[in-house]
Design a protein that fits this description.
- Keywords: Signal.
- This is Secreted protein.
- It comes from Streptosporangium minutum.
- The structure is a single chain.
- The protein has helices at about 5-55, 60-80, 85-100, 105-130.
- The chain is built from 4 helices and no strands.
- It has one domain (about 35-130).
- It is about 85% helix and about 0% strand.
- It is mostly helical.
- The longest helix is centred in the N-terminal third of the chain and has 49 residues, at about 5-55.
């Protein structure tokens, strides 16, 4: 029986190493995507709570409240555009539309918008977090 040429074990070892690296990279990528998804979910909920906190003291400043609502909607829309998770994208777009739909033109509409955001913010956060689950 003749010994195997040296080249064959080297090629086999190279192929095995390539297979292990490819498998490892795939698993690392999956973990990375999971971390990104979790981070986006946390950011979405934080945008809603941040928007609520910003508008609460603005009841007497309708223009500033309108701007804060639009800023929150824009941030959620940007997050939705970057979201890898389709369900999170849809939920963030829906909440952004709700925020954009609040028109604050005077003191009365500011009070109404403030009450609506305070009431609906819990529902919005639940929608966003359930989209991540």
């Amino acid at each position: 029986m003749r010994p195997l040429p040296r080249r064959i074990p080297v090629l086999a070892a190279s192929a095995l190493a390539a297979a292990l690296i490819t498998t490892g990279c795939s698993e690392i990528q999956q973990v990375s995507e999971g971390v990104d998804k979790a981070q986006q979910c946390l950011q979405a909920a934080a945008i809603v709570t941040d928007t609520v906190q910003k508008i609460t003291p603005l009841i007497n400043d309708p223009a500033a409240m309108e701007k804060a609502l639009n800023d929150g909607a824009t941030k959620l829309g940007d997050l939705a555009d970057k979201a890898a998770n389709t369900t999170l994208k849809e939920a963030a777009d829906g909440v952004a539309k709700d925020l954009e739909g609040l028109n604050v033109t005077d003191a009365n509409s500011a009070v109404d918008a403030g009450q609506k955001v305070a009431t609906d913010s819990v529902k919005w956060v639940e929608q966003l977090t359930s989209a991540c689950g």
